[in-house]
Amino acid sequence: MFVQHKQLKNLNIPAEKVAHLHSASNRVQLSFADHFPQLCQAYLLQISGGGKTLVVVAFYLTESQCSIFFVPQSGEVPHQDAEGIYEEGYGFIESMGFELNETDYHLLTEDEKQSYWIILPINQSADEITAKLAVSAGNSVPEPGKLCASSLKSLGRFFASM
Fold it and tell me: What is the pLDDT tens value at each position of the chain, 162 positions in all?
């Protein structure tokens, strides 16, 4: 069972701590306490460190430019127990109408992981997102083409497996 972690506002962690990452291919309108109904993006992460793993379900509210996080009620678990909790998180997100896709994050080089991680809204505050949007007008953001190419490769593998 996942519970909302109300104190967590963003995932300000190093890219190398993220062991696995799924991202929704669609946006769904949801309503959370203290927020008006709006389109949301969903992410499922496995964060590892110190012999433990934490599975995190993250929703990014596009209009409010903020994130809402859910963690397992059990908190961090040993690595060998994480797979079942990750599957539970997968089901939790899909039960809300999202379609999760593998990002192949775990297959990226350290530099590619950093480039990918830095542009995700769930690890940034609203002020950081606004600043990056302003910078993007000057084309100074990390190369989104690399992110898009990686996602297309993943999507191609998905269709090939069908």
Answer: 899 998 888 888 899 999 999 999 999 999 998 899 999 999 999 999 888 999 999 999 999 999 999 999 988 998 888 899 999 999 999 999 999 999 999 899 999 999 999 889 998 765 555 555 555 555 544 444 444 444 445 445 544 544
Quick check: 153 and 104 in contact, CB under 8 A? yes
Burial 115-145 (b: 16+ CB within 10 A, else e): bbbebbbbbbeeeebeebeeeeeeeeeeeee
Q: Which helix (H) or strand (E) holds 57?
A: strand 52-61
3-state secondary structure 64-125: CCEEEEEEECCCCEEHHHHHHHHHHHHHHHHCCCCCEEECCHHHCCHHHHHHHHHCCHHHCC
- With beta carbons less than 8 A apart as the criterion, state whether 73 and 3 touch: yes
